[in-house]
Design brief:
CATH topology of chain A: Ferritin
Number of helices of chain B: 2
Number of helices of chain A: 8
Largest interface: A-B, 30 and 29 residues
Number of domains of chain B: 1
Strand content of chain B: under 5%
Distance between the termini of chain B: 20 Å
Number of domains of chain A: 1
Strand content of chain A: under 5%
Shape of chain A: elongated
Oligomer: heterodimer
Order of helices and strands of chain B: HH
Shape of chain B: elongated
Order of helices and strands of chain A: HHHHHHHH
Structural class of chain B: mainly alpha
Bound molecules: fe (ii) ion
CATH architecture of chain A: Up-down Bundle
Radius of gyration of chain B: 16 Å
Chain lengths: 211, 88
């Protein structure tokens, strides 16, 4: 279970609201490579992992992503707080305002509502961890685009930089977990099929005999 | 003036709590894939202790950081929420 801690992982203090930026940053809340998708992806995949390291890393990164979801939500909230109706219209947020006011709703920058189709649980630890590696790179790339778009607002860039950096670390840790899982699966194959002439069912699982 | 001063100390303490908290997260993720690293384990232990001491001190003055902090009145409602800004 989780215990809520009344602080952000990294502070968000935006002095100049700017609904234009909220319109794009919302994608890291409920978009395809956003933090909601990330946390649900890892926290759902962890149940099927074959070793302790992979279970732990999915659990702990999934938990950190929830803290990132809160940070992104805070950015969006502070960017729209107190905005006038004219500012909202000028930012192109009239359609959003119609359905959600200035609540923080999980959707992509293009307005597509969050969907579980953004995540996969393939029933295959290698496939799942490979997806996670790609997800971290896509999130990093998205943050870089957002940093470009927010170039005039240092209060927004600061937490976005922190979030970008975390994706790089998560990618590294998932890579290490993947190597561990691959080794484990290869070993299992070796012990199960002592006869090295038995061809593995797929090329993916090297039997470890060196042939 | 007094209030400003209090606010500044509060923010400084909270920043330090965040720093220990972050270091612990970072070390935990590292230890998940490098459980044999003695140096990381040692640092993790040190930061856990520093965080606990600092959180105890903070909560006594500024109120609970989690609902697992006993109070004589419900102080959970007194401090601003972290997403509201400034208060972070
Ligand atoms: Fe991440």
């Amino acid at each position: 279970m989780w215990t809520y801690s009344k602080k952000l992982e990294y502070p968000v203090n935006i002095k100049c609201p700017d609904p234009r930026l909220a319109k794009v940053i919302i994608s890291q809340y409920g978009g395809p490579d956003g933090e909601l998708a990330a946390s649900l992806r890892y926290l759902s995949q962890r149940f099927g992992m074959p070793d302790q390291n992979a279970k732990a890393i999915l659990n702990d990164i999934g938990t950190e992503e929830l803290a990132h979801l809160e940070m992104v939500g805070s950015i969006v909230h502070q960017l729209t707080k107190g905005a006038s109706i004219e500012e909202i219209e000028k930012a192109g947020l009239a359609p959003y305002y119609t359905d959600h006011g200035v609540d923080v709703y999980p959707q992509s920058a293009a307005g597509v509502p969050f969907t579980a189709a953004y995540i996969a649980c393939k029933g295959d630890p290698i496939a799942n961890l490979q997806e996670d590696l790609a997800a971290e790179q896509k999130a990093r790339a998205t943050y870089e685009k957002l940093i470009d778009l927010c170039r005039d607002n240092p209060d927004v860039i600061d937490p976005l930089r922190f979030l970008r950096e975390r994706e790089v670390v998560h990618f590294q840790r998932f890579g290490e977990a993947l190597r561990g899982v691959q080794d484990k699966l290869a070993n299992r194959k070796f012990y199960m099929n002592n006869d090295c002439n038995v061809k593995p069912a797929t090329d993916n699982n090297d039997c470890g005999c060196g042939n | 003036m007094h209030n400003n001063c209090m606010e500044q100390t509060r923010n400084e303490m909270l920043m330090q709590i965040r720093e220990y908290n972050f270091s612990i997260i970072e070390l935990a993720l590292y230890l998940d894939t490098h459980p044999e690293d003695k140096k990381a384990l040692c640092l993790h232990k040190e930061y856990c202790k520093s965080l606990k001491d600092l959180e105890d001190k903070y909560q006594k003055v500024y109120g609970p950081l989690t609902i697992k902090y006993p109070c004589n009145k419900w102080r959970w409602l007194e401090e601003p929420w972290p997403w509201e800004g400034d208060a972070n």
